[in-house]
Design brief:
Layout lengths: L1 H20 L14 E6 L3 E3 L3 E3 L3 H13 L2 E7 L7 H13 L6 E2 L9 E7 L7 H7 L8 E8 L7 H8 L4 E2 L3 E4 H6 L1 H15 L2
Parallel strand pairs: 1-4, 1-6, 6-7, 7-8, 7-9
Antiparallel strand pairs: 2-3, 4-5
């Protein structure tokens, strides 16, 4: 009887350990789990190709990544909101890029407490929104693994992986994911499958 109880106890311990280890993003080059942050900038209102939306394209993908990795979700938001009207937002985004602006953002998260940071954004004029640079420049990225993801309607990552590497000094920037906003909004099972496949790739 004692042997049976001992075996059951060991089995329960194994199940618990396996569950606990699966609760965080794992890297292949180390046995212990990593602390994961999923930080993103996203915009609601009128968006290209998807109309008026109540949850941003990048927000949807960020939630999928956070759910898959059990990471902490953090939204980068500007103090002054962008207009809901698409063309007005496009004009402001263009002016901000041309002026290398750093819009003020509200709230923050201590990036330094995390090992792996997924950083998401829409592709605005072939670049990250300037508010993302504001966020990046507030933190020390030395020794971090940064994994970019973006939503777009044909422009892909547009070299933002390189720009992110330049901005987040000391970080290792992994291969990013580019996914269409129309897919994020209208074909979420397909979007999730794409996210899952990509996560397996960056986790090798």
């Amino acid at each position: 009887m004692k042997n049976v109880i001992s075996i059951l106890t060991m089995l329960c311990a194994c199940v618990f350990t396996s569950h606990a280890q699966g609760s965080k993003f794992q890297t292949t080059d180390m046995e212990e789990s990593k602390k994961v942050l999923v930080a993103f900038f996203s915009r609601t209102g009128e968006n290209y190709a998807v109309g008026n939306i109540s949850k941003g394209n990048t927000h949807i993908i960020a939630e999928m990544i956070a759910n898959e990795t059990k990471g902490k979700l953090f939204q980068i938001e500007t103090v002054k909101p962008y207009p809901d009207e698409y063309e007005a937002c496009v004009d402001i985004a263009k002016a901000e890029k041309e002026n290398d602006a750093r819009p003020e953002v509200k709230g923050d998260v201590k990036v330094e407490d995390y090992d792996v940071i997924f950083l998401g954004y829409p592709n605005w004029w072939g670049d990250m929104p300037m508010a993302v640079y504001t966020f990046i420049e507030k933190h020390d990225w030395n020794g971090k693994t940064v994994i970019p993801f973006c939503t777009h309607e044909g422009s892909g990552l547009s070299g933002t992986e390189r720009k992110l590497k330049d901005a987040s000094k000391g970080a290792t920037v992994s291969e990013g994911l580019a996914i269409k906003g129309t897919t994020a909004q209208n074909s979420q099972p397909q979007a999730l499958k794409t996210v899952q496949t990509w996560l397996k790739k960056v986790n090798k």
